[in-house]
């Protein structure tokens, strides 16, 4: 569960990126956070990841108050969140299998467990046959599938996706959204930041709209889109 109350972020020498944002995302929800460029979406994600500190307000993720979290606990906290980015961020010199396995190796998962869980995850994202391929041999959609497999391999309760379809053509974008929907169906909370109105309108999920740092809309199962 994500509980945000009265969250404000003002960057130095700049206007407010977020102003008095309060919202709750329950376990198992699928939520879009949308808004124009510069509205504050990435700032919100970065605060959730504890990469950016709020100016004021409270953020509690899975019962952990981020404002009270000791610095040494942050890496462990971040591992409880799966994160996917627009530009995939795969290791270019490792194949598909190794890209996914790496996320387990760094936290000391046993070789036996890795050999069991990576193929299972690659099956889930539909990439079993490409496990030996390198990122440059894959389409954008396939690369994003690898990134999703990597984000989920340690079974996080929450998946945060920052413009996950931003580099994909409409067909691949729809496939990735279908995969995120399936992941959500299996119990993971999914939070997708996007400014694609097509995707938001097609999916009919909860849509939180941010405009100049303020939440101006929060609609359940909606195709709501902000006015320019
Ligand atoms: N590190 C920073 N230092 C100063 N100002 C920043 C910083 N990061 C973001 N901002 C400002 O905060 C505001 C919100 O930016 P943010 O990146 O959160 O928006 P966004 O909705 O994610 O935009 P986009 O869709 O283009 O990624 C903008 O005015 C931006 O210029």
TrEMBL record:
Subcellular location: Cell membrane
Gene Ontology BP annotations: cell division
Signal sequence segment: none
Alphabetically ordered keywords of this record: ATP-binding, Cell cycle, Cell division, Cell membrane, Membrane, Nucleotide-binding
Domain of life per record: Bacteria
GO molecular function: ATP binding
Membrane topology listed for this record: Peripheral membrane protein
Chief location category: membrane
Assembly description: Homodimer. Forms a membrane-associated complex with FtsX.
Family: Belongs to the ABC transporter superfamily.
Protein name in the entry: Cell division ATP-binding protein FtsE
């Amino acid at each position: 569960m994500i509980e945000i109350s009265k969250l404000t972020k003002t960057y130095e020498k700049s206007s407010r990126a977020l102003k008095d944002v309060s919202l709750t995302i329950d376990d198992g929800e699928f939520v879009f956070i949308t808004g124009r460029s510069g509205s504050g979406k990435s700032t919100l994600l970065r605060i959730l990841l504890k990469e950016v500190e709020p100016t004021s307000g409270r953020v509690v993720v899975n019962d952990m108050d981020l404002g009270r979290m000791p610095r040494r606990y942050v890496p462990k906290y971040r591992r409880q969140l799966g994160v996917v980015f627009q530009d995939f961020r795969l290791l270019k010199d490792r194949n598909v299998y190794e890209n996914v396995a790496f996320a387990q190796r760094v936290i000391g998962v046993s070789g036996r467990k890795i050999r069991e869980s990576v193929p299972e995850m690659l099956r889930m994202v539909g990439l079993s046959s490409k496990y030996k391929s390198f990122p440059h041999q894959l389409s954008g959609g396939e690369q994003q599938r690898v990134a999703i497999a990597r984000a989920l391999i340690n079974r996080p309760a929450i998946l945060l996706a920052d413009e996950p379809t931003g580099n994909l053509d409409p067909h691949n974008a729809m496939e990735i959204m279908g995969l995120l929907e399936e992941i959500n169906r299996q119990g993971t909370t999914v939070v997708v930041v996007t400014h694609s109105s097509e995707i938001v309108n097609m999916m009919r999920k909860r849509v939180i709209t941010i405009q100049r740092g303020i939440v101006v809309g929060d609609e359940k199962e909606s195709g709501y889109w902000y006015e320019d």
